[in-house]
Every structure is written in structure tokens, then in C-alpha cells.
Amino acid sequence: MDKTTDIKALFHHFYRPLCLYALHYLQDADAAEDVVQESFTSYWQIITDGATDGIGNPKSYLYSIVRNRCIDALRRAGRTGKRLRPEDLAGEISDEQAVERSEVEARLWEAVDRLPARRRELLLMSKRDGMTYDQIAVATGLSVNTVRNQISRALHALQADADRILKFVLTFPLLPLP
Amino acid sequence: MKAISEDSLQFVARHWRHGLFSRKQAWRRFRNANSNPGISIYGADEPVRRVPVWGYALGAALAAVILGLFLFGSNARTVIPATAAVQSVVLPDGSQATLAPGATLSFRRHGFGSRDRSLRQTGQIYYAVARNEQLPFEITASEGFIRVLGTRFQVISDSTCTAVDVVDGRVRFSAGPAEDGLILSKGMHAELPAGAAAPVLNKPATPNPAAWATHSFIYDNAPLDEVLRELSAYFECTLGTDAPDRRLTGEFESGDLGEIISLIETALGIQIKTTR
């Protein structure tokens, strides 16, 4: 496989999961995007300077570049010890969990992208802002029934996407190794 | 099939913004930063098009005509008027604005989201901005000018001062579009008094100044008395403790005050007194 299509396929496949992975470390979306960009750049430099015939496992290689850069960024921000570990909203998670979750969450992210705007906003008010259906109804002027109905449809759509993607992942291997 | 985990859903919901983590934009950025003369990074499906010089001139002339047309053409504005309650609106570009009571917001009826993303505001407004690197999101307040690509922050503006609090991402804050400004990131607060040439950094009044709109409280090694002051204001009660110097790191969703208090009590091994 030639290097150009290779890097494009890798970028396409791993950009979002790596962003979500970095987000578990950094908790800042823009910083996460910067780290992932820099990581792909250094991956690309390693590939193109000809010192290697190819990288056996691009996925684990990319994840480890991103991990190191995240930890560097956290150190620069004055963090040490336990506070260099990945987290979710409830607290610390392991690095393996962060890798696993980054793939699931990247798909979930895309599914949220695809929701109709209004339905998505109601879902976010519930899941992001922790508002109850009653509070959302008051804030938007919709009836509680409409709010409940719209959020339940949004959740169904996310679940359907998750099922479809799980099947896809089970049927096809991720990427051929070079 | 396996159900979506609530933890993952909440994590995605917390950070999701329109257009953020766009693979297309990211790939373009990567390609521009890594054009290597040895190996073409352009895929076969994306030929490099060479536009002759006269093509640029023609383009510029066309752009000038279009610009003139819309500068002198429709200037009708959509105005979100002040109300007595908190109101949340979704703007044509997918960004979300949460207006505190009394705040107003206006933008050009035609072209917002396609030609520009310029807003005028008064009062206190929280924004969750859809990411779009081609069209910066720009706010003109009574004093000051704010420009972002995609982020979450609030602007508080009255006749004496404009203040900006960043929840997430990066924000450029200056006295005017062409003035030097400050780049603010997550957790930073800056103020621009009326008549000043540039904004100045300041400590936010409380750790989560936009909690009224985000309904979440994030503490990173925050002094407990500051935490209790903020929670007291949000839940309209008085919280006291005999260990005000202790420090707290954690994240809470607004909801049940009793639950938040018992979490803090357990985490720090202290007692908190609530007076309504």
C-alpha cells in the first residue's frame, strides 16, 4: 500500500477516536485536537524519513504517541503523579479503558452529529446539563411529553447506530497491516 | 445488543460541539502543515488544481462586487429581545446561546452562518459555539470584541465593563476587531472597563462563573470556602463549615444539593451546615 493512501486511511479511521482518547487525558477539546494533529505529523515524519520499512501496528503506535504528548502537556500544566491519568466525568479510568472508550465514543460522537438539531439540543440539555425533563420543558416552552418523546427517540437513534457499528466492526477487521 | 454506557454518553454530551473533531477540516489542516516535496500527500481523489493568476484577479473582482452588494443590500437583523427568564436559542449556524434575564442578542437576518457569524449583545450570555474554522464567531459587546472558532464561554456586558469567562476552548478578547487582545483559555477570566485600550486578566469571581447556564460545577484544587460560596449562591441557601481552608477537586452536576453536600462531606471527612 502506498504511503499516501495509507496515511489518509489511518487519519480517517483514527482521527476521532484519538481525539476522544486525548480528551480523556486533557479534558479540553481544542488541546486534544492539537495533540492529535502533532501526533499524526510526527507519525508521518517517521514514515517519510525512510528510517523504517513501516510500522507493524499503526494503531498502538499512534495511541502511544498521543498518550506521551498528553502526559507532557499535563506536566507542563503542573500536574504530577495520579493527576496524569485519564479520567471520565466520574473520575480516574485506566489507560486501557480510555483506549476502549475512545473507539465507542467516537462512534457515539458521530451518531450525535447525525441527530436533528432540535432533538440533539434536548438530549444535550438532559445528558450534558443534567436538567430534568420538567426543567427542559420550562426552558424550551415544550410540553414534558414532547421532551420525553424527543429524548427517547434520540437515544433510540444512538442505540441503533451503536448496534450497526458493532456489527460492522465484528464483520470487518479494522485495517490491513502493512 | 449491548446498551450504550451512560458514562460514555455523558462524556460525549459534555464535550460535543457542532463541527468539533471534523475529520475533513482536520485532514485539510494536516495536509497543509505537511506538504512534503518528496512524497505527495495529496490523494489521487484530490488533484491539486492550478488556478492561473488572472483567475485570482477575476475572483477578487467578483468577491468585491458580491461584498458591495451585501454591504449595501439587506441589513435586516434578527433580534432576540430581553425576557424575565433564562432563555436558550439555537442560532442558524448550530451554535447555542443561553441568555440571562435582561440580555439581548442580534445578528444579520441573511448571511449569519454562511457569510459571517457576527453578533451584537448586551447583558449576560453563555455561548456554546459550533466549530467552523472558515467562519470565526464574533461578538461585539458594548465594550470589547470577542472572536472564537468553536468553544464554550460567557460574555457579561454593561455600560461600565465587559467581562469574558471561558468554560472550554480558546477565545480572543480585544477592545476592537483590529486591536491587540488577549487569548483566553479554559477557566480564564478577563475584563475590559469602558474606555480601556485592552482587556486585563483577572481571577474569576467564583470557580464556575457560568454555572447558571451550564448547570455543572468543576473544582480543581479549589478552597472549600469558595466552593461553598458558589454553591450557596446557586442553590439560594447558606452553607457553612469549620474547615474552610480545605481544598476540593471534583465535578458535580447541579441537581440535588443534598447529594453534592454528602459527596463533599465524605470526600473531605468534614461536616457542612445548611441554612435556608
Describe the structure.
The complex is a heterodimer of chains A (178) and B (276). Chain A is 73% helix and 2% strand. With 178 residues, chain A is mostly helical. In chain A, a hairpin with a 2-residue loop joins strand 1 (87-88) and strand 2. In chain A, helix 1 runs parallel beside helix 3 and helix 6 crosses helix 7. In chain B, strands 1, 2, 3, 4, 5, 6, 7, 8, 9, 10, 11, 12 and 13 form a 13-stranded mixed beta sheet that branches. Chain B has a two-stranded antiparallel ribbon with strand order 14-16. Among the domains of chain B are: 77-202, Jelly Rolls, CATH 2.60.120.1440; 215-275, Phage tail protein beta-alpha-beta fold, CATH 3.55.50. Helix content of chain B is 25%, strand content 33%. With 276 residues, chain B is α+β, with helices and mostly antiparallel strands. Chain B starts with 5 loop residues before the first helix and ends with a strand.
Short description:
Chain A is mainly α and 178 residues long. Helix content of chain A is 73%, strand content 2%. Chain B contains 6 helices and 17 strands.
